[in-house]
Structure formats: C-alpha cells, structure tokens
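Lab notebook, bench 4. Continuing the backlog of folding jobs that were queued last week. Each job is logged with the same field layout so the records can be merged later without manual cleanup. Today's entry covers Phage tail protein, a 194-residue chain. Filled in by technician R.K.

JOB TYPE: sequence-to-structure
TARGET: Phage tail protein
LENGTH: 194
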Amino acid sequence: MAMIGLRYPICAQITEDGGTTTYSGGKVIGRAIKADMSIEVTDDKLYADDAVAETAKEFKSGKVTLNADDIPDEIKAVIFGHKQEDAGITGETEVKMLISGGNDDGSPVGLGFYGVKQLNGSRKYRAIWLTKVKFGVNSESLETKGESISFQTPTIEGDIMTDAAGNWKKEVTLSTASAAIAWLNKMAGIEVSA
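JOB STATUS: finished
OUTPUT FIELD FOLLOWS
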C-alpha cells in the first residue's frame, strides 16, 4: 500500500509500573507536516563449523523526527522539561511565559499519528503509536519576510525506546479516519465523551 498522508500528531505522558505502561494527559501537538522514523536493529550471528549457524535481528534503537505547523508551549513544557509561569503582563489574562533552563530534561512520552494508505483505489488509515520517545530541545531558525513568504516550522527529534513491556511500536490499520483518531485518543489516555 502507498502512504499518501500524515495527520493528528499526538503525545501523552508515560507512567511505567513494573511491566505495565500507561498514558495520560494526551494532547495534539499541532498539525503534521512530516514524520520520519529510522530504526536500528542488531545483527548478531553465531558462527559454527565455519558458517553462520544462527542469526538474530532485533530492535536496538530508533529516531523519530516530527515536523509540525506549531508546537504549543504546554507541549514543550512536557517534552523538553521547560517551565511555565504567569507572564505578569498587565491587560493580558492567562499569558504564560515559557522558561528554558540549561538543565531541562523532559520526560519520555508516547507519540502517535496516522497516515492514509491507498491500494487499488481503497483507502485505509494506519495509526502508529510509538510507546516511548525521549525528545531533545529543538533548534530554531527565523527568517525575515522578503519579497516572498518562507514559512518556518518547528522540527523535533527524539529517541525511540522500548516501554516497560519491551515494545517500541503499536499500530492498527482501520477503515475510517475517525476510527484512527479514536484509537490514538485511547492510546494517549484522552477520554472523549459520546
């Protein structure tokens, strides 16, 4: 199947207890532009009688790069460990100031999104949940507006790890976009009223 879209990037805070991982406080990150995943696998071989007798290929680590139209400050506070305080601006209500500290170290999160798959004219929706991702502070680039507008959008990069149960990814392929969103909400611990 060919992938033809990317939508609904979402993250949630992780609680690990023994071999169980749960998610809560899920939030939509922004509107998805691009997501890249690169996975590294171990490639171990057992040699016997001068030949390969056994081989093991297993998940070792991974990287995910997510580009979105915006990453709200409340998401940055969670994934980067930044602080939010009242900005104290007269005439403005509930304006929060984002404070980035030199020792900020955000918490791992669950990360999900879905893409549209098409094969033989039929569309399906592939929802992906990365069970544990640790993001690092993103670089930024700002550019003045000249004769044409050049959009600057944030890109964040994180390490994909295994959760308490040893899983690094969960995914489903569903028949509707609303079903994909509902599954991602369930994974992120978002309760949606009927």
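OBSERVATION: The helical segments are 73-80, 177-187.
SIGNED: R.K.
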